[in-house]
Amino acid sequence: MNQTNKTAVQAAVLIREQLVAGQPQDRPISLPEYSWGRIQQLQRQISLARKHDWHQAAARLTEDMAGTLESCCRQLENVCRPLQLRPAQRQASSASDVYRDILALYDEFEEVDIDLEKHELSVTTDCIVLEDVNLGAFQIRLDWGRLGYPQPYRVGALDPNPAARRDDVTHPHVQDEQLCEGDGRAAIAAALAECRLHDFFLLVSQLLHTYGRGSAYVELDNWYGITCTDCGGTMSPDDSYCCERCGSELCDNCRQLCGGCEESHCSECLSRCPGCEMDFCRNCMEVCPTCKRNFCAGCLDKCAACGREFCDTCLETCPVCQKPFCGNCRGEKNLCRACHDKQGTEEKTNDPPQNKSGQRPAGRPETHRRRRTACASA
Amino acid sequence: MKVLYLNNDGGGFADNVEIAEGITVQRFFAEKVPHGKPQDYLIRVNRQPAASDQVLQDGERVSFTPTKIEGA
Fold first, then answer.
1. What CATH code is carried by the domain that includes residue B53?
2. In this complex, do B72 and A79 lie within 8 Å of one another by their Cβ atoms?
3. Which end of chain B is more exposed for a tag (fewer CB within 10 A), N or C?
């Protein structure tokens, strides 16, 4: 027996002892909570896409939903099956099983290391490339002294290519050398509980070789940083802002706040109000029906007659009632219709009746008759 | 005849199951994972890669591990 095999035997014995010492009587039941959470998230996204008539996005999301539902059903079946077994039927690896698992690792992985002093068994994966992003090789280090505890292993990048400004994220699903197990959580827990080390390392390795878009610490699209839509500069995802209207990514220097709703917007999605010369988004501006220009709510006023909102330029104040009126609701001399009509009525009432010759009664001034003729013609 | 069947999909499952004599890896996979595709799994017999037409023997260890497992 060569040295590798001897070390493997020692490790197998130690691991088996640790397993027996720390084995819980009953393995916890791991439900596919992550998959279910993802299904609910997809459901919300599909509803939003349909509401906005984003048909292509809705179709793609529906496809994702179908796949995730299928996966969730399989996971539920696998959770149910062992519950139907008697405790005696559950498998627990013997020391020889653990030994064979360790030897098999040498065929699966680039390197295998056993550190008896540190109680560590580690494997090195091949170079992992996800969507053209080369993340390098990873070392999966199992501390068998912590078997029975949550996540008794770490995942370290051997040639780190971390996300922009996120040195702690060396893989979309690894932060601070901790793997977020997602869909693999239950299977990994089962493999560790039964000391199926070959299965455990295969599972972690396959997780590292799979990219779960939409659920990463840093998405691969943003791995090298996000580009600001306005200035073209690069920033980390944590330092970016999103235009509330068009969704484009903005740096802190380029994002602008709407003077009305105070939400972040890009320069393309804000317009200047000609009244107050502040910037507003489309939702916070209205069109003046007369001049057709966009104004903010603060620079529009209501016509006292029709109730529609106009800019200051398109409203005039009635000299009698001192209220603002639009062009359609006022007449001659900028009088509003009500005041104009009222004035006309008063003049008719005050004007005395004429004799048959058309002569006015004595004492009535000439100007008075001229005014009545002018009002009649109006 | 019995084999130790390990399914690492979903919650993980390990059990001794009866098999028919002469059953191949491909046939066994189709029975146990009817909605799955073999190319989507790492299939190991006694911890070694196995050909689809390999005939299973009594007492062997068969494992199926999905190749695509999404992290969170």
1. 3.10.20.30
2. no
3. N
Q: How far apart are the first and last CA of chain A?
A: 120
The two beta strands, A174-175 and A178-179, are antiparallel
- Is the model's pLDDT at A368 over the cut of 60? no
* Interface predicted TM-score (ipTM): 0.95
What is the pLDDT confidence band of residue A83, given thresholds at 50, 70 and 90? low
A210/B40 Cα distance (integer angstroms): 12
Domain ranges, ordered by start, for chain A: 3-220, 227-283, 296-348
- Whether pLDDT at A354 is above 80: no
Amino acid B72: pLDDT = 79
Cβ contact, residue pair B35, A104, below 8 Å: no
CA distance A106 to chain B (A): 11
Judge whether A234 is closer than 8 Å to chain B, CB to CB.
Answer: no
Give me the CATH topology for the region A227-283: Herpes Virus-1 (3.30.40)
How many folded domains does chain B comprise? Answer: 1
Instruction: Sort out which chain B residues have CB atoms less than 8 A from A183's CB and list them.
Output: 69-72
CATH topology for the A296-348 domain: Herpes Virus-1 (3.30.40)
B 6-45 → A contacts, CB under 8 A: 6-16, 35, 42, 44
Nearest to A78 among B4, B13, B72 (CB): B13
pLDDT of residue A374: 36
Residue B28 falls inside a structural domain: yes
Q: In what order do the strands lie in the sheet with A169-171?
A: A169-171, A174-175, A178-179
pTM of the predicted model as reported, rounded to 2 decimal places? 0.62
Measured between CB atoms, which of B7, B10, B69 is closest to A206? B69
Q: Which residues of A touch B67 (CB under 8 A)?
A: 206, 209-210
- Domain of B7 in residue numbering reads as 2-66
Q: Are B4 and A32 within 8 A, CB to CB?
A: no
Distance CA A258, CA A284 (A): 8
DSSP character for A324?
Answer: E
Instruction: Identify which of A117, A125, A180 has the alpha carbon closest to the alpha carbon of residue A144.
Output: A117
